[in-house]
Amino acid sequence: MNKSFLSAAAFAALSMTAVNAQAATLDDVKARGELNCVVSTGIAGFAAPDDKGVWAGIDVDFCRAVAAAVLGDGEKVNFVPTTGKTRFTVLNSGEGDILFRNTTETMSRDADLKLTFLPVNYYDGQGFMISKELGVNSAKDLDGASICIQTGTTTELNLADYFRTNGISYEPVPVETNAEAQTNYLGGRCDVFTTDASGLASTRASFEKPDDHIILPEIISKEPLGGAVRHGDDQWADIGKWVVNALIAAEELGVTQGSAAEMGKAAGDNPSINRLMGTEGDFGSMIGLDNQWALRAIEAVGNYGEIFDRNIGPDTAIGLERGLNAQWKDGGILYAAPIR
Amino acid sequence: MSSGTSVEGSTSITSQRNIFSRLWNDKETRSVIVQIIALVALFAFFAFMIRNAVYNLEAIGKGFSFDFLWQPANYDINQRLISYDSRSSHMRAMQVGILNTLLVAFAGIVLATVLGFILGVLRLSKNWLTNKIAYVYIEYVRNVPVLLHILLVHGIMVHSLPKPKSAINVGDAGFLTNRGLFMPKPIPEPLLWAVIALFVAGIIFAIIFRSWAKKVQNETGKIYPVFWISVFAIIILPVLAYFLLGSPVNWEAPELKGFNFRGGMVIRPEFIALWLALSFYTAAFIAEIVRAGILAVSHGQTEASMALGIPRGRTLKLVVIPQALRVIVPPLSSQYLNITKNSSLAIAIGYMDITATIGGISLNQTGREMECMIIVMALYLLFSLLISMFMNWYNKRIKLVER
Ligand SMILES: N[C@@H](CCC(=O)N[C@@H](CS)C(=O)NCC(=O)O)C(=O)O
């Protein structure tokens, strides 16, 4: 339906955009005055429009951070919603400048689909959700179940491998979007919904009775979720990469949305903070921006911890713990390369 | 000398101009020229698009190759008419998709034709109520996009039918659930082949008998009950044989085990939704075609036939239907093409046809957009051409033979 239409449209765009030189996404974005950011069609906590139509979520905040660094305004983002299937075509055809869409970094996506991945912004893994009344406590007991999966994802590949290697059978029920998965799951077309564990938590939180459903303990894959850009524009990839690093480093260094402006006024005695805030060194010009690039990003959306807590943290309905996504100092594996 | 040449030159120019203007003023040549120009422009346009696409793909470092077809597909497909698992190749996944497309298209064409003819006749009924019901149905159905019909039927199946645990038991033979209709699966015993052979022999006999009866009728005017004799040969005889041979089929019954019914066979809600929605939708169009076809046969013909003492049934069969068919068949072909192409809406509800397999998951997991799209388009083109060829052949067969 409209998604396959979208993919056809993106394909048409691919064949119609007159042969254009690769580089200079930065110039295009500046000239347009708006960042085209590829996100999902809607998964609360990651990227979803609220009831006023304003997009919110972790992925959305990363889009806004990039827009703030590049254009000076986190609001200047045009969100391009995509399904698991259309996202890469939309990015590669030039309809999107950058992608933040619960996207797992894999070798084939990097090397064959020609994407350049930005640092991981959420370490995830694939899980299973099932209604409590079915009394299942382990994924190994799912023999014969009907399972809803989003097509065009790593999810469907992991699932096929997991069930085959464990010698259990299942009926795949393919769906295009999270919303479709939800209707099919709640309607009983499938017994189980499988996707990234974060996606399950977010989906469950949107149910009328979240407590009727459990997420099984098995995590069957590694899903390092990160942003991505097209191959071939290194400067643009660097911008994406260092904006993500800056937001993670900001948390580590204790720079918050509230304190950033103050800390950016004058150099203090922590050189790492000074470099991040642009009061020391000339890091902005290395990526084609000015030295306040990171300051603006942090002012727009806060540091990584603030983004996490606001969108999916323990105090939200989704209620995810930091777990692997804590800073390396706090027992997680979040570890931003130094800005120097 | 020099003036001579210039004069010569100018005459040849004028005569050339004359040729062009004459060519241009000639209606037929002009239309040929325009067509050639249009064709060249069209080809140039496509060449430009393809060149751009290939160039743009290469610019981001993606080559053009069909090698991926032999790599393992790595995904599972629920409805498989041939053996397939996640280790099979993309090629195999494509074949599974092709069969699924053909299955739903064929089933859709059959049901839409039957429904369409019934509705078309009802629409001409003298009974006010029947007539109006058919009218309302046709107008409602053809004015709502087919995608909505598909989603509606699927939604109704998934949300209003019970889960497997509380399945609706259909005479202990089938179980209707929101996961589909589970039915016993026939497992043939060797003797079944005898029944099948008898059935095939029946068909061959019927064909030969029919042409023989026709010849006899032409020569002597004697009429045989061809229809009933054919029914006897094709259906009644094999059925009798089946029971005399002690029903040489084992039925594997579906059984509720764990989450789902196991064993037997299942018709999934995705298939049912797509099949019914496509059929209901297209039947409304076919009904209008049938109505127009019947109305096109002037009433005088029926009256003339009846006046000759030909009974009503025969009048319908020998006078009205053959002439109506000539009006009905050509537009009917395009409805058949529509069903086939509209079946690609399958993707909206996750029915695994060509668009969802090779044009969907394979395309996405391998990133070979260009290659997969070419394959999918070529396949639909092929199916459409085959249907057109068949319908053209049929149309020729029923054409008015002028004596
Ligand atoms: N991480 C996996 C799965 C991504 C995925 O599709 N996730 C779902 C659930 S977390 C999603 O984002 N759905 C939103 C939508 O349907 O637009 C991948 O990259 O292939």
From the structure above, extract its key features.
heterodimer; A: 340 residues; alpha/beta; D-Maltodextrin-Binding Protein, domain 2; 2 domains; five-stranded mixed sheet; three-stranded parallel sheet; 14 helices; globular; disordered N terminus; B: 403 residues; alpha+beta; MetI-like fold; two-stranded antiparallel ribbon; binds glutathione
Q: Using the 3D structure, state the CATH architecture of the largest domain in chain A.
A: 3-Layer(aba) Sandwich
Please give the oligomerization state of what you see: heterodimer
Top CATH class of the largest domain in chain A: Alpha Beta
Q: What's the architecture of the largest domain in chain B, going by CATH?
A: Orthogonal Bundle
How many individual helices of chain B?
12
| Low-confidence sequence ranges of chain B | 1-7
Number of domains of chain A: 2
Structural class of chain B: alpha+beta
Order of helices and strands of chain B: HHHHHEEEEHHEEEEHHHHH
What is the radius of gyration of chain B? 29 Å
The gross shape of chain A turns out to be globular
At the first level of CATH, what is the class of the largest domain in chain B?
Mainly Alpha
- Percent strand of chain B: 5-15%
Biggest interface found? A-B, 55 and 50 residues
Radius of gyration of chain A: 20 Å
Separation, N- and C-terminal Cα atoms of chain A: 48 Å
Q: What structural class is derived from the secondary structure elements of chain A? A: alpha/beta
Which small-molecule species are bound to the chains here? glutathione
3D architecture notes:
With 340 residues, chain A is of the alpha/beta class. Chain A folds into two domains: 24-124 and 224-330, D-Maltodextrin-Binding Protein, domain 2; 126-221, Periplasmic binding protein-like II (D-Maltodextrin-Binding Protein, domain 2). Chain A is built from 14 helices and twelve strands. Chain A has helices at residues 2-16, 25-32, 58-71, 87-92, 107-111, 154-165, 178-186, 197-205, 234-253, 260-263, 271-277, 283-286, 293-301, 304-311, and strands at 35-40, 48-49, 55-56, 77-82, 98-99, 115-124, 126-131, 145-150, 170-175, 192-196, 213-215, 223-230. Chain A has a five-stranded mixed β-sheet, sandwiched between helices. Chain A has a three-stranded parallel β-sheet with strand order 4-1-5. In chain A, a hairpin with a 5-residue loop joins strand 2 and strand 3. Chain A is globular, with a radius of gyration of 20 Å. In chain B, helix 3 runs antiparallel to helix 4, helix 3 crosses helix 8 and helix 9 (299-307) packs antiparallel against helix 10. In chain B, the strands form three sheets. In chain B, strands 1-2-3-8 form a four-stranded antiparallel β-sheet. Chain B has a two-stranded antiparallel sheet with strand order 4-5. Chain B has a two-stranded antiparallel ribbon with strand order 6-7. The longest helix of chain B has 34 residues, at 90-123. The model of chain B is unreliable at 1-7 (pLDDT under 50). The termini of chain B are far apart. Chain B is built from twelve helices and eight strands. Chain B is an alpha+beta fold and 403 residues long. Chain B has three domains: 2-58; 94-183 and 265-398, Orthogonal Bundle (MetI-like fold), CATH 1.10.3720; 185-252. Classes of the chains: A alpha/beta (340), B alpha+beta (403). At the A-B interface, helix 1, helix 4, helix 6 and strand 9 of A face helix 2, helix 5, helix 11 and helix 12 of B. The complex binds glutathione. Glutathione is lined by residues 40-43, 83-84, 102-104, 150, 153-155, 177-178, 195-196, 199, 223, 225 of chain A. Glutathione binds at residues 40-43, 83-84, 102-104, 150, 153-155, 177-178, 195-196, 199, 223, 225 of chain A.
